[in-house]
C-alpha cells in the first residue's frame, strides 16, 4: 500500500498543533482545532480541483494545495503573541494578538469556501464540517472581539479578496492555494496596519523607530509598483528604451515622492538622516557591512560559475540541487554572525535585500533595459518545476524564510534580556530549518541516501542527518550567543526539530517559505511561561503549580477527544466501503483516463478508452483486459500540418459571446466527449449545411446579403 504524502504531512501538522495547544489553551483554541479539521477536509477538494484544472485561478502545478499547513500559521502566531502578552500583563497587545488569530482564521475559512463553491457535485460532508468550523469561529468572534476589532478583521479580509483577484490574475502558476494564503494574507494584514498607523489610529504606545516601518513600506511600495506597471504594460511594449526610461523615472518618483515622506511621517524623523546615524553608530557595523558585501560577491560568483557551465554544456544544463545549496550556505554565513552580534543591523539589511530582490524581479519580468535580458539569462540555469509562472520566487522565498523570524522577534511583550528557555532560539528558526536542515537533508539525501520515505523522493538518511546537523547548530548558537539559555528545554527543542524535519520530507510546498514558520511557532510557544510544557499527556510530571495541572488535564482531554473522533471517522469510512466491483469474463468495459477533453495543445484527449474485453483474473487482482478489434477512439487525421477529427453527427448549435458554436459527436468517442466547437474549426462546410437543412430553426451563420438586425425608431 502506497503512503499518501499529503496524509503524512497533515499528520505532522496536527501533531504540532496539538503540542502547541497543550502549551497554551484559551478561548480561541477550540476554534483553531475546528479550523484545522475543516482545512484537512477542504485540502482534498482543492487537490482534486487542481488536478482537474477546475480551480478559479491558475495555481502552480505539480504540487498539492498546502491548505492545512498554511491555514494554521497565522492563528498560531497570534496565539503565541497572546500568551506572551498575558504573561507580561500588556492588555493592548493581548487584544491585538486576538485580532491576528481571528484574522488568520477568517482568511483560511474564506479560502475553504472558494473550494467548496466551485466543486461539483457539492461535497455534502465537507460542507457540514466547514459549517461547524465556521460556527465555532463566529461564536469565538462574538465572545472575544469588540465591534471595532471585528471591523478591522473585515478590512483585512476585503483587502485579501481584492489582492487575490488582482495578483492571482496577473501572476498565474506562481503560487499554490496555501502559498497564496500566506503571501497575500500577510500583505493584506501589513497594508491594513500601515493604513491605520498612517491615519493615526495605530497601536497606542508603539515605538516610532523607522526600523519598524521599513519592511511594511518597502513591501507595499514594491507591490504597488508591480501592479501599476503590470497593468500598464498590457497595453504597451516594455522592452524598449522609452518604456525602460519611464519605468526607472516612475520608480524614482515613487521612492522619493511617496515612500520617503511616508517613512518620515511614520518614524517622525527623516529616513536618510536616521539611516546615516544608524550605520555609523559603531565601527563594528561598518565591518559587518563589508563582510556581507564579500558574501554578496561570492553569491554573484556562484551565479556566473553556473552560467559558465551552462555555456559549456548547452542550454539544457540546469544547476543541481547541491549547487543551489551554495546560497543556503551563504545565508547561514550571513545571518549567523548578524544574529549573534547585531540583530537591528541584520533586520535593516534583510529589508534592503528584499527590496532589491523584488525590484530586480520586476526588471526581469518586464524586460526593463539594461538588466532585464541579462537577468533572464543568468537565472534560467536555476529554474525548476517550482518556477513555472512569470515570477522566479525561490530565492525571494529563501530570504523571506530566514528573515521572518528576525523581523517578528523580539516583538511586543518581550521581557528584558530576551525570551526565556527555547525562546532564545526563535530568531534562529529560519537559519536552523532552511539554512542548516534543508541544506544538509538535500546534500546527504541526494548523495548517500538509499532508504526513501514512503510516497516521496526524500530519504531517511537525509532527514536523520538534517536533525543531527540542526542539533549541532543549536549547540554552536549556544556558544556564540550568550542570550540563549535553554533552561532544560532540550527535549522540546529536539522534538520540534524532528517534527519540522518530517514536514520537510513530505511537503510539496516551497520549503524555503513554509518550514521556518513551524519551528518559530513551536519555540515561541515553549517560552510563553518560561518552562517546557509536556509534549504528550504521558510525559507529565507532578507539579504544585495550578497552571501546569490545568495544562495536563486539558492535554489529556484533548487526546481523548482526538482518539474518539478518529475512531468515529474510521467507523464511518468502513460503513461506506462498498467493496471491489466484480466483472464477468467476456464483459466489455470502458476505462477512465481521468483527463480533460481537450489537451493543452488543442489535441482531443479521451476521458474513456475502450471498449476492452475481460479475458481473465490475475492473482486475485484486477482482471486482464483485451482491447476490441475496432480501434476506439480512432487516430486523428493529419491535414494541412494539423490534426483533424471525424464527426459522426452535429447535435446542436449555439450562438453567444464566443460566436457560433456546434455541439458535435466525435466518431469513436463516448457520449461524455460531446463538446462545443467554434464554427471556424469545422473544415467541411457540407456538415454545417446538412445540419441546418435538418434543423433550420437552430442558430446558424448569417446569410450573404442579409443585413444585421437593427431597431428603427418611430417617427
UniProtKB/TrEMBL annotation:
Residues 700-715 have a biased composition (Basic residues). SMART domains: CHROMO. Residues 695-715 are annotated as: Disordered. Residues 645-703 form the Chromo domain. GO terms for molecular function: dolichol kinase activity. InterPro entries: Chromo-like_dom_sf, Chromo/chromo_shadow_dom, Polypren_kinase. The chain crosses the membrane at residues 12-42, 63-83, 95-115, 122-141, 153-171, 211-234, 241-264, 284-304, 325-341, 347-367, 388-408, 428-448, 460-480. Keywords: Endoplasmic reticulum, Kinase, Membrane, Transferase, Transmembrane, Transmembrane helix. The keyword Membrane applies. The keyword Transmembrane helix applies. GO terms for biological process: dolichyl monophosphate biosynthetic process. It is a multi-pass membrane protein. It is found in: Endoplasmic reticulum membrane; Nucleus. GO terms for cellular component: endoplasmic reticulum membrane; nucleus. Its EC number is 2.7.1.108. Its main location: endoplasmic reticulum. PANTHER family: DOLICHOL KINASE, TRANSMEMBRANE PROTEIN 15-RELATED. Belongs to the polyprenol kinase family. This is dolichol kinase. The lineage of its organism: Eukaryota, Metazoa, Chordata, Craniata, Vertebrata.
Amino acid at each position: 500500500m502506497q503512503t499518501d504524502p499529503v496524509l503524512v504531512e497533515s499528520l505532522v501538522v496536527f501533531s504540532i498543533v496539538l503540542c502547541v495547544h497543550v502549551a497554551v489553551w484559551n478561548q480561541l483554541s477550540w476554534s483553531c482545532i475546528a479550523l484545522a479539521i475543516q482545512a484537512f477536509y477542504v485540502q482534498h477538494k482543492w487537490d482534486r480541483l487542481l488536478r482537474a484544472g477546475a480551480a478559479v485561478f491558475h495555481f502552480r502545478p505539480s504540487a498539492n494545495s498546502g491548505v492545512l499547513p498554511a491555514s494554521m500559521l497565522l492563528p498560531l502566531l497570534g496565539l503565541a503573541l497572546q500568551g506572551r502578552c498575558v504573561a507580561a500583563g500588556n492588555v493592548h497587545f493581548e487584544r491585538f494578538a486576538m485580532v491576528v488569530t481571528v484574522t488568520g482564521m477568517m482568511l483560511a475559512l474564506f479560502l475553504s469556501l472558494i473550494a467548496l463553491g466551485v466543486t461539483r457535485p457539492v461535497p455534502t460532508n465537507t460542507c457540514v464540517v466547514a459549517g461547524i468550523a465556521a460556527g465555532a469561529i463566529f461564536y469565538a468572534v462574538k465572545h472575544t472581539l469588540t465591534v471595532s476589532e471585528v471591523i478591522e478583521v473585515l478590512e483585512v479580509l476585503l483587502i485579501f479578496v481584492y489582492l487575490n483577484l488582482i495578483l492571482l490574475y496577473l501572476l498565474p502558476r506562481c503560487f499554490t492555494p496555501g502559498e497564496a494564503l500566506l503571501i497575500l494574507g500577510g500583505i493584506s494584514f501589513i497594508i491594513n496596519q500601515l493604513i491605520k498607523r498612517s491615519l493615526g489610529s495605530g497601536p497606542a504606545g508603539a515605538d516610532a523607530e523607522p526600523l519598524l516601518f521599513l519592511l511594511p513600506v518597502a513591501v507595499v511600495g514594491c507591490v504597488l509598483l508591480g501592479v501599476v506597471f503590470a497593468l500598464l504594460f498590457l497595453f504597451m511594449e516594455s522592452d524598449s528604451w522609452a518604456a525602460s526610461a519611464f519605468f526607472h523615472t516612475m520608480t524614482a518618483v515613487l521612492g522619493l515622492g511617496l515612500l520617503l515622506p511616508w517613512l518620515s511621517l511614520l518614524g517622525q524623523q527623516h529616513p536618510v538622516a536616521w539611516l546615516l546615524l544608524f550605520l555609523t553608530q559603531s565601527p563594528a557595523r561598518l565591518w559587518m557591512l563589508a563582510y556581507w558585501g564579500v558574501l554578496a560577491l561570492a553569491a554573484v560568483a556562484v551565479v556566473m560559475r553556473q552560467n559558465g557551465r551552462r555555456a559549456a554544456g548547452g542550454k539544457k544544463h540546469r544547476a543541481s540541487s547541491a549547487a543551489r545549496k551554495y546560497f543556503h550556505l551563504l545565508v547561514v554565513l550571513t545571518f549567523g554572525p548578524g544574529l549573534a552580534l547585531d540583530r537591528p543591523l541584520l533586520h535593516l539589511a534583510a529589508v534592503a535585500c528584499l527590496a532589491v530582490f523584488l525590484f530586480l524581479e520586476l526588471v526581469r519580468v518586464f524586460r526593463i533595459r539594461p538588466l532585464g535580458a541579462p537577468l533572464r539569462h543568468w537565472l534560467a540555469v536555476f529554474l525548476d518545476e517550482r518556477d513555472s509562472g512569470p515570477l522566479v520566487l525561490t530565492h525571494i522565498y529563501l530570504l523571506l524564510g530566514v528573515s521572518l523570524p528576525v523581523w517578528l522577534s523580539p516583538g511586543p511583550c518581550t521581557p528584558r534580556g530576551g525570551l526565556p528557555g527555547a525562546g532564545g532560539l526563535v530568531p534562529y528558526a529560519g537559519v536552523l530549518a532552511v539554512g542548516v536542515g534543508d541544506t544538509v537533508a538535500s546534500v546527504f539525501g541526494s548523495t548517500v541516501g538509499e532508504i526513501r520515505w514512503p510516497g516521496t523522493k526524500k530519504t531517511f538518511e537525509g532527514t536523520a542527518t538534517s536533525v543531527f546537523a540542526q542539533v549541532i547548530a543549536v549547540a554552536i548558537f549556544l556558544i556564540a550567543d550568550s542570550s540563549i539559555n535553554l533552561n532544560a528545554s532540550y527535549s522540546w527543542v529536539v522534538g520540534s526539530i524532528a517534527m519540522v524535519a518530517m514536514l520537510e520530507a513530505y511537503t510539496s510546498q516551497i520549503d524555503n517559505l513554509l518550514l521556518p514558520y513551524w519551528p518559530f511557532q513551536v519555540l515561541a510557544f515553549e517560552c510563553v511561561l518560561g518552562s517546557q510544557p509536556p509534549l504528550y499527556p504521558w510525559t507529565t510530571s507532578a507539579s504544585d503549580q495550578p497552571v501546569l495541572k490545568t495544562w495536563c488535564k486539558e492535554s489529556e482531554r484533548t487526546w481523548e477527544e482526538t482518539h474518539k473522533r478518529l475512531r468515529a471517522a474510521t467507523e464511518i469510512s468502513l460503513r461506506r466501503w462498498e467493496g471491489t466491483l466484480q466483472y464477468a469474463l467476456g464483459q466489455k468495459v470502458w476505462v477512465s483516463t481521468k483527463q480533460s477533453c481537450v489537451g493543452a495543445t488543442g489535441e482531443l484527449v479521451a476521458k474513456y478508452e475502450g471498449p476492452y474485453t475481460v479475458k481473465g483474473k490475475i492473482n486475485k487482482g484486477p482482471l486482464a483486459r483485451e482491447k476490441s478489434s475496432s480501434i476506439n477512439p480512432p487516430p486523428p487525421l493529419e491535414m494541412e500540418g494539423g490534426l483533424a477529427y471525424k464527426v459522426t453527427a452535429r447535435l446542436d448549435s449555439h450562438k453567444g459571446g464566443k460566436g457560433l458554436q456546434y455541439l458535435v459527436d466525435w466518431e469513436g468517442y463516448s457520449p461524455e466527449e460531446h463538446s462545443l466547437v467554434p464554427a471556424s474549426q469545422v473544415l467541411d462546410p457540407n456538415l454545417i449545411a446538412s445540419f441546418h437543412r435538418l434543423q433550420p430553426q437552430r442558430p446558424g451563420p448569417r446569410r450573404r446579403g442579409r443585413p444585421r438586425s437593427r431597431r428603427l425608431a418611430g417617427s
